[in-house]
Amino acid sequence: MWIGWCEFDFLLGDVHSLKQKRSVVKPIVAEIRRRYGVSVAEVGHLDLHRRAAIGVGVVGPDRTHLTEVLDEVERFGASRPEVQLVAVRRRIIAAEDID
User: Fold this and answer.
1) What average pLDDT does the segment 39-62 reach?
2) How many CB atoms lie within 10 A of CB 85?
């Protein structure tokens, strides 16, 4: 079993409140979940209205599959016109490597 995750750091465009932030972030999270069948949530910058950190987690039978899924999710995140992708952190590990 392989476990993969990535964390996206987004800069939001013309957003002036946490309510407006939710209206931008919530559809992105929902679309990633629907389109790729992964676990996804807003995981950071919760008190900042112009930044968002979104985490994605996936489990699969082989590293190649996880790499492909995370690559697709990263392309999706980078292509969103309402946000600017600042950074992505990614890790893929085998279950036997976890202590």
Assistant:
1) 95
2) 14
